[in-house]
Structures are given as structure tokens and as C-alpha cells.
Amino acid sequence: MPNTVREEMEDRHLGRRQFMRRSVAGVALAGSSSAALGADSGARPRRTGKREGTVRTEADVLVVGGGTAGTIAAIQAARAGAKTALVERGTQLGGTATTGGVSFPGLFDAWGKQIIAGIGWELVKRAVELDKGTLPDFSQVPARHWQNQVHVNQFVYALLAEEACVEAGVTVAYYESPLSVEQTVDGWLVDTVGPGTYRRVTCQQIIDCTGGASVVGMLGLPRLRDSETQPGSLLYKLGGVHPVGRGQLEQLYVHGADSSTSVTLTEANLNGRRLLLKKLRGQKDTSRLVHMQPETAHRETYRIRGETVITVEDYTSGRVFDDAVCYAFYPVDLHTPSGVKPKPLARGTVPTIGLRALVPKGSRDIMVAGRCVSSDRLANSGLRVQASCMAMGQAAGAAAALAAQRKTTPIEVPLEDIRELLRHHGAIVPSA
User: What's the pTM value of the predicted model, to 2 decimals?
Assistant: First the structure.
């Protein structure tokens, strides 16, 4: 492993009970401040330990994060018959494709044929059709990879993603984030908080789709991160109008962008908007700002150390893992302060993703999906794109649903059963 990679090993000696005490102490401290303000204003102080109106949710599968991967994971788990809950910190589903504004998902094809389908493709296709757009011809191998990416109306996609979750029976909770996570003899006890809401979720399986494996980090399981990370991007449009669903937005690099905490998210947004304002003030023509995404889109933070780590050699050679559950396809695409120079894969090469790369090392009953997949940095630069994240989300949703129904852990579910369920729901599964 390169020296630039460090493994985050949070102190296991604290134990989960101490972790829970620390979490509750944080809430009590915040409550104490509120009580003090109330006393100053003449209001009657309230007990901070009392939680009125707690929302209790029982689920087989809890998906944390409703972005590119999490939306698909939740729909798949619910369609497979699992009682599914989805917690999302933001206002809508879709993540990078909607809130981030990178509504240009790819790649669903490689070398003249479609290699990723299933639920993610279903939503993308429906969004394009409803918006009266056009789909690429996957039988044609383009001169440049991005020419087969799909232009999607971000607003239509968000609507359809939400509709699909509701129709599948997913319990969707916006504006909430995990406060504490505890493993029990029956599964998991997860407390989430949002404005005016304290939710207690009991579930058997968790799928961490937070982008940076936040839940995995809360549990003290190993994560990987390099000393340098790829810049984020704030997307916007100057001049004319933005043809939603027909073209790409302009972007500004936000160096040091980090989605790990509310503090770093705030910093990334402040920096991105400051740069855009500087650009706007420096315009020599009369171009107007006609569109700006509400937050910076992120490319890289933490990755898990899984039961398998996908290396750049695995990726560029098209290794077919013995537990492969989906394909991926994109150039090695590492963004740096000076820009990006994609390194295309050799003709005919189509990488795969194994189930064990979605399972944190040494864990039970928790998986990840999306850009936090277990991989080295160069492999991750190709794996992190939207079509691959959708495929990972569907694979994790299928495995978690079967594990919950069979009272076992995902890695112990027969692989062929997972593949069969994925095929039943339209996914394309690698074969040896």
C-alpha cells in the first residue's frame, strides 16, 4: 500500500457503550445551551434528556444516504421484499446527479454493448423519455468516452427517483443524519436526528451510501484516505439559458473539498461560492449568472478497507472477480490541481466489482455502495462514476435484502442467489 495512504482506525478500546455515552453527551451539551438561552429569556428550562415525540422505525434494511448509489440500493431492497428505510441528510434524492448537478451519468456501455442496466438505468431512461430527450446509441463505440454519457434533466430524475422509492414501499426520511450506531444481538440500533426529529431505527442490515463511508467510520471500522484528495466542483451557468437535460454546466474546481462533516461541507460551499462570485465580478462582458447548484459536488473522501481491495491493476486488466456482482467502465480519471488527463482502458477491457469489495473488513451485517467502495486511489477514480455506483447500489440492496430475510450476513448468502435476484430486476451480472 502506498505511503500516502493512511488507514483510519478509530479507537476500538472505547467500546460501543462509551461511544453511545459520548453521542448522548453531545446532545445533552447542545440541549444545555438551549436551556440556558431559555432561562435568560424567562422561559422555563426543559430537561435535555427527555425526548418527546421520538419516531420509531422498524426495518429489515436501513440505507444511509440517498445519493446515486443509495437511491438504487433502497429501491432494490424494497422491491425484493425487504422492509426498507432510507435516511438522507438533504432535500432530495440523486446526490451528485441532482443536488451536485452532474446530470451526465455514465458509463452504461463499453465497446459497443450495454454493460450496466437494472434499476439505475430504468430511472435514467424514464427521465430522458419523460423529458423528451435522446439516448446514446450504445452499439457505436465513440471516439471519446464522454460521448456516450447520458444527458438527464436533474429535476425530472429527482422526481422519478422519489416516486420509485415511494412505490416500492421505502420509508424516506429527509433532513436526518445518524447520531449513533450500535450493534445488537438482533441487528442494529441506529439513532438519527434532524430538525425537531429524533428517530430510533431498529434494523437487521445497514447499507452505507454516504459517499465517505460515514457509518463505517462511526463504528471504528478501517477506512482509507490519501494525503491529497481530488477537488470538488461547483457547477453553474453564465450567460444565456441553461438547457436542462441537453448539455453540461460549467464548473469551478473547489480544492480541498471534503464531504466528511458539516464543517468541511460548509467550507467547500463557502469556497466554491466565493470563487464563483470572484469570477462573476471579473467578467468583462455582460454575462449573467443564470444557474448555480446548491452545493459543491465531491469526488473523493474516504474509502473502506473491504474484504477485497480493488487495485488499479485489477481495474485496468478487467479482472473478473470470483464474486463479481456488477461491471464498471470508465477511464482512470484522477483530477488534480492542474486538471485531469483521463487514461482510457485498453480496448475490450471491462472491469468488475466483487461483493467483498462492498463489505468492510471484519464486519457483519453492513455493506457500502458508491464511491467509498474498497479500492486504491487510482482504481477509485474510475469506479466512482454514476453508472457504476448505481450498479453497486443495486448489488448491495439485493444482498442485504436476502441476508435480512435469511437471518444471515450478506457475505454468507449464496452468490448465485444474489446474482439471480439481480438478473430478475434487470441487472447485467458478470460471468466467469
Answer: 0.89
